Amino acid sequence: xxxxxxxxxxxxxxxxxxxxxxxxxxxxxxxxxxxxxxxxxxxxxxxxxxxxxxxxxxxxxxxxxxxxxxxxxxxxxxxxxxxxxxxxxxxxxxxxxxxxxxxxxxxxxxxxxxxxxxxxxxxxxxxx
Length: 128
Prior knowledge:
- The protein is an all-beta fold.
- Helix content is 0%, strand content 46%.
- It has no helices and 11 strands.
- It has strands spanning 4-7, 10-13, 18-24, 33-39, 46-51, 63-65, 73-78, 83-88, 97-104, 117-118, 122-127.
- The strands form 2 sheets. Strands 2, 4, 5, 6, 9, 10 and 11 form a 7-stranded mixed sheet that branches. The chain has a 4-stranded antiparallel sheet with strand order 1-3-8-7, with no helix packed on it.
- A hairpin with a 4-residue loop joins strand 7 and strand 8 (83-88).
- It is globular and about 40 Å long.
- The termini are far apart.
């Protein structure tokens, strides 16, 4: 079992930055690929970013991004802290949504139904 808790959401002006955190319970965090998704009112949940499970000391985890956030968002993980982060820069009003982190015991995928565990979400609101 993996329990996920997101934090760091809030209200920010367009062009600003936020860093979301997702703290995971359990001893097998490093075995899971992690994803960030978001869902705006009236829209489907969409993939934002993903990071592969740790590949070992000498290899960095692979990262993946939706085209809409490439160059603005950065996903990272700290296995010692059982935490995954989403650094969001140059925020736009269209980034407004509830952001969720999720864990999958396999490779990163953009398909939400493939993920095994989800957090409760954190609201991000970007004002124009």
